[in-house]
Amino acid sequence: MFCLSEMEEDALKEFFNMGLGMAAASLSQMVNNEVLLSLPQLKVVPYEEATRMLVANEEEKLVAIRQNFTGELTGTALLIFPGAEGLELVRTLLNEHMPLEVLMELEQETLQDVGNVVLNAFLESFTQMMSLQFEFEAAEFLKGSSSFLLDISSHLAAQRLSLLAEADGEEERAFVLMMDFKTHDEEEAQHTLSGFVVLLFSQYSMEVLKRELKVILATL
Amino acid sequence: MSELDVRLLFRALEVSAVGTIVLDPEMRIVFWNDWMEKGSRLRAEQVLQKTLLEVFPELAESRISRAVESALNSGLPTMLSHRLTPTPFPLYTASEKSEGNPRMSQMVLIKAIRDTSERRFCLIQIQDITNTVSREQMLRTQAQELQAAKENAQEANKAKSDFLANMSHEIRTPMNAIIGMSHLALKTDLNIKQRDYISKVHASAQSLLGIINDILDFSKIEAGKLAMEAVPFYLEDVLNNVANLVAMKAEEQGLEVNFQVDPGVPLNLIGDPLRLGQILINLTNNAVKFTRKGNIVVSVRMVGEKEEEHRVTLHFKVEDTGIGLNEEQMARLFTAFTQADSSTTRKFGGTGLGLTISKRLVEMMHGRIWVESAPGVGSTFQFTAVFGRKGKERRRFRLPSREMVGLRVLVADDNPVSREILQKSFESFSFRVTCVASGEEAVFEMERGIMVNKPYQMVYLDWQMGEMDGIRTAKEIGRRFPHAHVPKIVMVTAYSREDVILAAKGAGIDAFLTKPINLSILFETALSVLTRESQRQPGVGGELPVSPRSRDAASFAWRGFKVLLVEDNEINQQVARELLEEEGVVVVIAANGEEAVAAVHRESFDLVLMDVQMPVMDGYAATRAIRADPAFKSLPIIAMTANAMAGDRERCMETGMNDHISKPVHPPGMFATMARHVAPRAPVVAPATMTVVREERAASVKEEVIDLPEQLDGIDLAAGLRNLNGNRKFYRKVLGDVHARFQDVAEKFAGELQHGHRDEARRLIHTFKGVIGTLGAGVLQRLSGEIEETLVKGDPARLPGLIDGWKPEVARVMGALERIVVKVQPVSAPGVAAPLDREQLQKIFGRLSGLIDEGDSDAQEWVAKAMELLAGTEWSGLMERLRSRIDDYEFEMARETFRQLVSSLDVRL
């Protein structure tokens, strides 16, 4: 089992904390209201556990925004909204009270926009710390069960690079960085936005990440 | 990449349908395609090499500029949705409208791209989504409208249901008063006209209630609020109930209703007995309504059984020989508010809801309903329904001894349908049955049986059979065979039992059965007749056993029971109180729940009848309060409510009540429900209770000490009283009624004969014979019977002689009755008549004379005045006769009576 040292984990948390601050700022600007995000709980867990953490019911369809990244570090960033209540903020933004099943084109786009803002905030803090080069693909809207969403091979398959690279046959084990977060809005509870930010790395990328963390910690 | 390829790609980007901008690392515009030129109204030459913010100063500090920075600095892509950033770029759609161009709705993608030297450039792509936005806006508006409409509809539907529930209550409360009061009124002294009016009010109120119930049921079904119960029940009880309800109506029309249950049909079922009964009653009532003559057969057989699931499918059939239906009518039959055709509606009445309700109910019982019919031949309505089975028990009929198995039974009935039913029924009890179609054949068959040494042990005779009716057959059997060979004789009749019991006096009948015959009763009667020593002693009247039907709630001895009636409405109080008191129940009234709780703590009751909706404290709260005291844990509390919606019953039970009676109160139903919850009284009642009861009873009876003479000429008063259950008040009334109706029977009878109306004459003498027998005028009854018999079948030459012998007896009995009628006039100073107000009399008679001559019904009013004046005098008898003739619009005869009065009173006109 791959694991991070306490120091490494702290460092990661610090990156994400900064990302969180930026995300909160962006969201606040978008809703013209101060949005606070709680401290993230960071966990490095294998696929199975991550699936369990996400939802009790594996069959339940979840809504997620995905941003793949490629380059020296390859993986997938996901913003997963667990259940309908997570979308209250979006509803407020849309000034809508429609059930999720009838989310139409523009609503999907809006969700994608919000997810994009949140993910960018995280990823930006991440990339600014690292000396690694990687590129980001545009945000995409997804719907699926937790097991589908957390399966890195399904994301890799969707990556442009995987079309070029030869499949190495080795079964990819996903390593999942998971944070749950929540927005706070003292006056208006409907501005709550909660969800999971998930980073899925291939085993190889996880090694690269660990190495990079070591470098960062050494320079501090 | 060759020069040509680069130019080609450049051109492709220029004509792309997506707005495309490329910024260099310093945010200067290096590419601006055709689409951008059109949307921004700026040509490429005007913007190239300028920074984005130089071209669009308003974009400073916007999401776009931050996204561009983020792409150039960190390589992060951004997507700007329309919702959150509706018009990021100042772009316009091409529009025909002269008043300027609307701003374009856009979706923007901002991405980082690297050139060959790894420098980050920024690619901006813009899509025009104006159409999508307006389309979605439209859909959203529509969806909102639909949502609002749906909410409105749901609200309206709920309002409708509430309205119905309220209406149900509001309608039923006055209906209770109308039905209850007319029921009570019919038990009081009424003249013929009043009786006619009130019985029509009563019948109309009943049928109105039926219609209201239909409409409520229909609404409940429509609203999906009708729930099927799943309780254990006996199929037989349901059929019994149907028989009781339709028999009277059928009898009025001279129709026979026969019930036929296949031996294989299980009788212990689980389902909704009320709803099953409702369907059967509806179909059978229809059959009666649309049939003028012939038969109605209700049959049940089993068509499927799932042993492991304890479920059976039963097939019910209601066959009639009525007007029938054609194809087109059949097709429309089960639709709401339609009848076979509009003229049918007018002729036969009805809402047409009954079949629709039946159809839904059948569907709820997982069955189907259909009809087979031919115009003029008759209709067969049939349905299937699925029920649960309780236990394996199939039949409740088990002969108590092996000796009875194979017992020989002879059935004589001229109706083939009832013959077949009796045969099948007896066979199902494992008797051996032979059927014949007439009395003569029955006697012949019995002789044959004795000859071959296989005598019959039991004979069932239909009363009404062509040549030789049941009574004559019974007499013939008694006469012809030695005592040892006389079987048990059971008389079967579609007419009222009282008539036939009277007629069959002395014929040696062991038991009587009324059609439609119910299996249990048939079985019980057979057993009781067989196990009893022969009662047969010709000439001895004695107590004749009757079928066990009389052993139901109606004959439950209510005398001395004490009931607390909790009811706020005064009319309803009166209705219930009088119904109960009539049966000898002692009634204490509480006007609300609080009083009820106080009452049960103050004195003890056998049962509480509890209204639910009351002021101060309602029935639910009162029940809970009473039940809270462990002393009243087992006190029967029965709800009495006008709420007929589903769930009311359940709610009553939940609160701790034992049962539920729905208003309007159906008296037999009320007593049946009550009987379920109280133990029959032991013959000896505890002395303490008895005293109380006596006191209260005495108080209520005191005012009406019934004065009956010690003896009456030609009438056995003791026998008459016995016939009327010892009810002196009723007996006195009957005596008066008979006098009023039949004092001129001799004249009437002679008149009918004179005009050749033999049928009318026969009917008259038949009725007279029955009635006079009830009074206890045995001689007159016998003489009348002989005349009837001679009229029906006999030597017409004998008739004048018989009539001559009969007339004096009529006069004797009528004379005696006249004296009693005079005597019972509720008037002062018996014996000594007050001096007549001659002047007044003169005036009234003067007026009456003209009115009677003209046949004006205003005469009634003046007769009443004259009666007041002449009450208690020797003329009151004649007055009574005058009144009844005027009430019957027989002015011709009234004139004659009037003349008698005039001459007797010495009035000058």
**What is the number of beta strands of chain A?**
8
Please identify which CATH superfamily of chain A we are dealing with: CheC-like
Please count the beta strands of chain B (DSSP E, at least 2 residues each).
22
Shape of chain B: elongated
Runs of chain A in which pLDDT lies below 50 for 5 or more consecutive residues are: 160-172
Largest interface: A-B, 30 and 25 residues
Along the chain, the helix and strand elements of chain A come as HEEHEEHHEEHHHEEH
Sketch the major β-sheet of chain A: 8 strands, antiparallel
What is the 3D shape of chain A? globular
Largest sheet of chain B: 7 strands, mixed
Gyration radius over CA of chain A: 17 Å
Assigned CATH class of chain A: Alpha Beta
User: Number of DSSP helices of chain B?
Assistant: 33
Structural class by helix and strand composition of chain B: alpha/beta
- CATH topology value of chain A: Chemotaxis protein chec
In short, what is this structure?
The complex is a heterodimer of chains A (220) and B (909). By secondary structure, chain A is an alpha+beta fold. Chain A has eight helices and eight strands.
